[in-house]
Amino acid sequence: MLTIGCHLSIAKGFAAMGADALDIGANTFAFFTRNPRGGSVRALDLDDVARLRAIMEEHSFGRLVAHAPYTYNPCSAKEHAREFALQAMREDLERLEALPGNLYNFHPGSHVGQGVERGIELIVDTLCTVMEPTQRTCVLLETMAGKGTEVGSRFEELAQIIEGVCVRRPELSDLLGVCLDTCHVSDAGYDIIHDLDGVLAEFDRVVGLDRLKAVHINDSKNPCGAHKDRHARIGEGYLGAVELGGGEDVFAAIVSHPALRDLPFILETPNELAGYAREIELLRGLSDAASCGK
Ligand code: FE
Ligand code: FE
Ligand code: ZN
């Protein structure tokens, strides 16, 4: 069975996200580790976390994919911004120990004119500082669209970051991975519409498919290579809409690909819960149809 869910609001707490997930037919979900705009976090309610863990166990949830707020920029040119990202990521990882065995994904950041190489260096520094070999959360770099000076839109850049951390702290290797965002990779210029196999073969060659731990499944409001990062609902963008050159078969191929089908899929489409429920049903249907056809 497909492990699929969407990004949920943490406003009502952890157990409430579990209940929302069940309501929409999800068996995983994503959430921001804190308010994306503010720095402060509520104290962790351990009873609430325990209630979520019970729901997850009872309903055989897959791994959750916590998302670091977009406001972290570990490769900013400003020291205080880097320091904020570092402290916040360290705190997020400490808090996630209450929910062991899940995933934490973050945007590598924007180098803001310092150059990709310097950006990569700063991201490696941050990861080497905030991660501990004893942590039970796997940290995922997200594939980016390449908007502005974003680092991580090329597989080579992600590979360099992982390699950089592994050289300095080999004991962290098993705790590092990648989250592939379908809108972002297409916007970055990887043609998953016509050649998903080829793109994943390239990922395997450059990064290694064993590093791939989660998928953000989104349609894109822009064509392949646009470097824009604007998510569309499934079937309403360049990946899924026939009139834009895509189609349902693009998403059928994504959810049934042997390299992807067992990973957690997270929707980050512009939707309310009812819309997410429909997308989950659609993608589960495409996945079932593909597995029957074999
Ligand atoms: Fe993201
Ligand atoms: Fe994403
Ligand atoms: Zn995005």
Structure in words:
The longest helix has 20 residues, at 273-292. The chain has helices spanning 14-23, 46-58, 79-96, 116-130, 155-168, 182-188, 196-206, 248-256, 273-292, and strands at 4-6, 30-32, 65-67, 103-106, 138-142, 176-181, 212-216, 219-220, 231-232, 265-267. It has a single domain (4-291), classed as Divalent-metal-dependent TIM barrel enzymes (TIM Barrel, Alpha-Beta Barrel). The two termini are 15 Å apart. The chain has 294 residues and is α/β, with parallel strands linked by helices. Strands 1-10-7-6-5-4-3-2 form an 8-stranded parallel β-sheet. It has a two-stranded antiparallel sheet with strand order 8-9. 45% of the residues are buried. The site of one fe (iii) ion has 4 residues, from loops.
